[in-house]
């Protein structure tokens, strides 16, 4: 029999399985907003499989993709209140709660995935996870998706090309400032409304990873894409703390080990998926693709420099210093 943790209203059911030397079956619901054939979608599926194997089926990760359970605007509250046990929101979406994480949103802060991984495996990663200080929430890992690209209905080559257009962003003060600095407007909307909003023209452009642009067919409702790799998009994997504390030691170890394996795997695989999504979009010829040149990149970086000054104090000295040491 499956004994979930207090998924319905009322006091959580306590059990002393460990005392008895027995683990009871636990169901952990993992809700996310992207398609299954994306880095996050596949990472969740792999994690679920590993947990099942490592616990002989005694911990079941039940996956809800495509915002079928909660969308990005309400998944965090659902996690905190125990309506769902695991989520993996993009770092940007938590950056107002945990300002240290704004470092991940700074434009051109990281050149490539290797730099991000080095940062996360070192002191910078430790500082960021220490910043997750909400009650009833525990951070487990950062999963890569990759770097963001710009899409719009006008070519985006020079930094001025975005002027006066309305871009959809994930909620995040740095992302807001980034577009404002470029003379554009930015509105945050739920990811699952994005296709319709681009199609209807409520917003004229957006930034996202290649795998998201491809799997949600955003390239079919946008005319131009610039592969700029200007910002990083990764996911903070979170678990409800009450759920975590109720797991036996063996179950916690199994989850940690499955998480470590999945994190290592997605680091390799996300890059491949994004490369494949680009190749597919090139082959379909539905969107004009521009690869940002080094010269253009330098000009964009210069233009976006004020964003760094605006946020460095909010992010905090220790995080900024660790980051500076890493990137020089
Ligand atoms: C977005 O909202 O654009 C992304 O965070 C979606 C996702 O989770 O990859």
UniProtKB/TrEMBL annotation:
Protein name listed in UniProt: C4-dicarboxylate-binding protein DctP
A Gene Ontology biological process term: transmembrane transport
Domain of life: Bacteria
Keyword Signal: yes
InterPro entries (alphabetical): DctP_fam (IPR018389), TRAP_DctP (IPR004682), TRAP_DctP_sf (IPR038404)
PANTHER family cross-referenced by the UniProt entry: C4-DICARBOXYLATE-BINDING PROTEIN DCTB (PTHR33376:SF7), PTHR33376
Coiled coil region boundaries: none
Pfam families attached to this UniProt entry: DctP
Organism: Aneurinibacillus migulanus (Bacillus migulanus)
NCBIfam families: dctP, TRAP_S1
Any one GO cellular component localisation term in the record: outer membrane-bounded periplasmic space
UniProt keyword annotations, A-Z: Signal, Transport
Family: Belongs to the bacterial solute-binding protein 7 family.
């Amino acid at each position: 029999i499956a004994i979930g943790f207090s998924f319905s209203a009322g006091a959580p059911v306590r059990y002393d399985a460990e005392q008895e030397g027995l683990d009871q079956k636990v169901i952990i619901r993992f809700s996310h907003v992207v398609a299954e054939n994306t880095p996050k979608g596949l990472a969740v599926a792999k994690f679920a499989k590993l947990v099942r194997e490592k616990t002989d089926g005694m911990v079941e990760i039940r996956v809800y993709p495509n915002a079928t359970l909660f969308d990005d605007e309400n998944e965090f509250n659902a996690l905190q209140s125990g309506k769902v046990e695991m989520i993996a929101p993009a770092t940007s979406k938590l950056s107002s709660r945990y300002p240290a994480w704004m470092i991940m949103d700074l434009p051109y802060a990281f050149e490539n995935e290797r730099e991000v991984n080095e940062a996360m495996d070192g002191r910078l990663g430790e500082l960021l996870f220490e910043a997750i200080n909400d009650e009833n929430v525990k951070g487990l890992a950062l999963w890569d998706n990759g770097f963001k690209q710009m899409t719009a209905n006008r070519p985006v080559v020079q930094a001025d090309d975005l002027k006066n257009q309305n871009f959809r962003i994930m909620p995040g003060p740095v992302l807001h400032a980034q577009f404002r600095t470029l003379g554009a407007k930015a509105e945050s909307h739920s990811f699952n409304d994005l296709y319709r909003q681009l199609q209807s023209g409520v917003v004229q452009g957006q930034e996202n990873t290649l795998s998201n642009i491809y799997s949600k067919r955003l390239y079919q409702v946008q005319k131009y894409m610039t592969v700029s790799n200007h910002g990083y998009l990764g996911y903070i994997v979170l678990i409800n703390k009450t759920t975590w504390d109720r797991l036996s030691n063996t179950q916690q170890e199994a989850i940690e080990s499955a998480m470590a394996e999945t994190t290592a795997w997605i680091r390799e695989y996300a890059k491949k998926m994004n490369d494949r999504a680009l190749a597919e979009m090139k082959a379909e010829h539905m969107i004009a693709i521009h690869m940002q040149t080094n010269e253009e990149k330098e000009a964009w970086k210069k233009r976006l420099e004020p964003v760094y000054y605006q946020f460095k104090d909010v992010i905090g000295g220790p995080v900024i210093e660790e980051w500076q040491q890493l990137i020089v």
